Amino acid sequence: MTVWDKEEHEKMYVLRSKFREELKQDFPSAFRFVGDRHRFIEAWVGEGWHHLVRELSERVEENENKPYVVQIKEKLGYLHFYISWYDDDIRAAINAVCHKSMSVCEECGKPGELDESLSWIKTVCPEHKKARSALRDAYNKE
User: Fold this and answer.
1) How far apart are CA 43 and CA 53, in angstroms?
2) Closest among 80, 89, 70 to 31, alpha carbons compared
3) Number of H helices, E strands in the chain
4) Which residue in 21, 44, 64, 68 is a FRET match for 12, CA 20 to 30 A apart?
5) pLDDT digits (tens, 9 = 90+) for 18-33
6) What's the whole-number average pLDDT of the chain?
7) What band does 55 get if pLDDT is binned at 50, 70 and 90?
8) What does pTM read for this prediction?
9) DSSP for 3-47, written as a single string
10) Furthest-apart CA pair in the chain: how many Å?
């Protein structure tokens, strides 16, 4: 068994690129600079968090000050969502949703918790924690 699966990696890249394009289409103001030669946003989060990203994107889209999304990523097991401008309302919304991400499996959206069993921390459900354990075991055998 190989720990790094090129086919799986390519599939994941295509899914995440498709999600980025959907965000641009659904929230044109919030993602107005995506694809511009100066800005290339990757939505590097698993499908289980897509609803959280959409929730925040909608808040950004509706904000009267018209901020735009700068970066979306997972770091230290939870969602990070950066925009160009913050007011108290949108900052509170981002903080609440990013905090919520620590209890939602990044892979499938089921209830989850932080897992530190590998060298990177992720929020996963019990099923995906088992998959990570299998990955860890395979890595240790190589």
Assistant:
1) 9
2) 70
3) 4, 5
4) 68
5) 888 899 899 999 988 7
6) 86
7) very high
8) 0.84
9) SS-HHHHHHHHHHHHHHHHHHHHH-TTTTTTTTSTT----EES-G
10) 54
